[in-house]
């Protein structure tokens, strides 16, 4: 311990130095030559470098003068298993729904526990190296305990869910009691975990009975946790609900009493004005996955209702979805696309700044998943989820004082240099330090070949 006169510097685990520290706090403060100080997995100070070096004695110092420091990023809808091992193998000229039925579902049906852990580890390594420290798992999980092991392997946080549906005979479909029992088992599996929270997770669409969605919503409320499912990425769900119930999907779910602030719906693209009102009235969060809609041609440019949800004060977050609906896990790239869609669809370039786009990947996403007390900004007391961005090189030249425009419009996950998750260094100099990438790549390549042959998802010309 170093002393200066009578002053004793406080020993801490980590000091992160940034030329600019982008806090994403309520005032959107940015500190020039700033520091984030971390101890026991939590942020204990966000201050100037001069103040931090005066007050603290860090065991480790990271960052430096050529960096921007931002909060850990949040991906609020990601399938960690299944088609991750079919990355860029699923053709991009399939008919609507064929990528799901011909590739994703057979892949899930063929998944062993080993494949679940392998694909989730691969997904989370990619996420971490692109600055994502919290991932809402979309519930395509046969073996949740192996996906939890993947979260532990990589050292990042997120939610864990189990694939739940009671219509049809797809993988792991069951009756209401069986589905709820699976959700209960997932919550018990994650109870007390420092970084991973169990969520109630259904497939959604028209693959859940009224009884199941009501039971799942009640189960999530009772257990004070989140609920997520898919709805209306295309017009098909509205057609199915209108035929079955006479109501559009979100109007029907409101009628059942299943909507609430515990619910984060993936997509909600093709919704009408009454459904927008239902989302806003019940404070339901919506997760927009724009790359998925574009790759699958689902019509986000024809029905960009997410803009109206934002204007109405709705809680939104961004997701990267899955490989049958997009081929990268990079939430900065997604934030850029979302910002462009807002500007273009309104024909008004004054709409939606890069700061708002970064908020959708950080603090606003945290609000959408009700984790804003823990993550989403660099503030004292929160989890130390911190991303160090390398601001050297051609992308960042010339060098602007405010890094946010470059971060959203010029850059993406490529600029992420180091990542800290709950105080633990998980990415250093662009590489995930918590796993052996070389052996992971070999295993993934082997599994890819086996999976393609086992699930019968052959390229279209075979
Ligand atoms: Zn999805």
Concise summary:
By secondary structure, the protein is an alpha/beta fold.
Q: What does this entry look like structurally?
A:
The chain is of the alpha/beta class. It contains 16 helices and 19 strands. The strands form four sheets. The chain has an eight-stranded mixed sheet, with helices on one face. Strand 9 (157-160), helix 5 and strand 10 form a beta-alpha-beta unit. It is globular and about 75 Å long. Residues 77, 79, 138, 230, 266, 321-322 line the site of zinc ion. Zinc ion binds next to loops.
Beta content: 15-25%
Helical stretch count? 16
Helix-strand category: alpha/beta
Based on the structure given, which CATH architecture of the largest domain is correct?
Alpha-Beta Barrel
Sheet of most strands: 8 strands, mixed
- Which range best describes the helical content: under 10%, 10-25%, 25-40%, 40-55%, 55-70% or over 70%? 25-40%
CATH C-level class of the largest domain: Alpha Beta
Net shape: globular
N-to-C span: 68 Å
Strand order of the largest sheet: 5-4-3-6-16-17-18-19
* CATH homologous superfamily descriptor of the largest domain: Metal-dependent hydrolases
Chart the SSEs and their pairings.
Elements: E1 3-4, E2 7-8, E3 10-22, E4 30-39, E5 42-48, H1 49-55, E6 56-71, E7 73-78, H2 98-110, H3 113-129, E8 132-137, H4 144-154, E9 157-160, H5 176-190, E10 196-198, E11 200-204, H6 210-222, E12 227-231, H7 236-245, H8 249-256, E13 263-267, H9 273-281, E14 285-288, H10 290-295, H11 306-311, E15 315-318, H12 331-346, H13 354-360, H14 363-368, E16 386-390, H15 404-410, E17 416-421, E18 424-428, E19 431-432, H16 437-455
Parallel strand pairs: 3-6, 7-8, 8-9, 9-10, 11-12, 12-13, 13-14, 14-15
Antiparallel strand pairs: 1-2, 3-4, 4-5, 6-16, 16-17, 17-18, 18-19
The protein binds zinc ion.
